[in-house]
Amino acid sequence: MTSQQQVDDQALSSRILGCLTGVGVGDALGMPTEFLSAAQIRQLFGEVRTFQAAPAWHPLAQLAAGRMTDDTEQTLAIARLVTQKAVFTARDVAEALLGWAAEMDLDSLDRMGPSTNHALKLLRAGEDPYRTGLRGNTNGAAIRIAPVGCVYPGAPEDVLDAVVEVCAPTHLTDVAVAGSTAVASGVARALQASTLDEVFEAMLWGARRGEERAREVIEVATDGRVPWEVISGQINPSLALRLEWALDLAASLKGSPRERRDRLARAIGTGALMIETVPLVAGILRIAEGDPYEAVVLAANAGGDTDSLASIVGGVAGALHGVAAFPQELVRAFERANEVSLARVADGLVRRATMSRTAGSVRPGGVPDA
């Protein structure tokens, strides 16, 4: 190995670890503010910049400060799958998610999104994982997609098939695949990018191509006849157009970062729908100028689905700037609170990323090539 290769490998390791750190730290920062409005957050916390516990009446009050939610848990589950299998299908993803839910005893906790909850019930009943996600238009696939981007550093065009497989069991809709491809493509590009604009370019490409690919897969999965009971999940605005608009709006807004964030959030929405989450993530990234810590703080205080917003934005920004961009006391506190070594997970993804450079992209199982 040459000295330049060693430098490149060290940089990749730092950025993949930065991605996972952003996912986890953002998730834990946003945990106590989830379901609250921006005004309620200011009243209760001022501004959340360190780990806090949720109020006693909050749905996540049982979690201590710094604890992760289902966002990071699912990310780690997919990271294990990606690390262990060079080629995987939606069936493998379904097994990984069912295993995660059983391990976390999530039947007794309201800790997963509506699309994932519904799909897991269908999967337990033995239904086809290429049909269980046909109504999933929420952000649950994007929260777990970062590891897919991590194994294709600098090659966002290679994430598409793997993204479809990760989405299919719970979120096989054009908007969900588009949003997830945007995030995975952004992470993949960020790992070797030098500017934030390169990341946005990759996200826009991912959104456009993800929409197209999802429609192709859905056509095959349903034999061209989408069941009436899931049709509401299949009628969506264009996430690619919404993402482009969000980036333009964020660039045009005036005022402090918090004031710009608040106006952006009111315009786009902070709910759990994919059509809101990923465009808002991109807009917050632009307002924060790509700074990972400032981005997760802005997202954690935005109101609504704050843990998902902060987790996704942290993953993309962390992939661009590496783990050193986060306050190290927060990183250590997160790992203590959750008894997890993100470096160990990152090492596995680095090994898989090195292999993917020569092995090619993951091919879909059960669906045709584009």
Automatic annotation (TrEMBL):
Matches recorded under Pfam families: ADP_ribosyl_GH
Cofactor(s), names only, from the UniProt record: Mg(2+)
InterPro entries: ADP-ribosylglycohydrolase, Ribosyl_crysJ1, Ribosyl_crysJ1_sf
Protein residues bound to Mg(2+) 2: D305
Cofactor details (free text): Binds 2 magnesium ions per subunit.
UniProt keyword annotation of Magnesium present: yes
Molecular-function annotations in GO: hydrolase activity; metal ion binding
Protein name (database record): ADP-ribosylglycohydrolase
Higher taxonomy: Bacteria, Bacillati, Bacillota, Limnochordia, Limnochordales
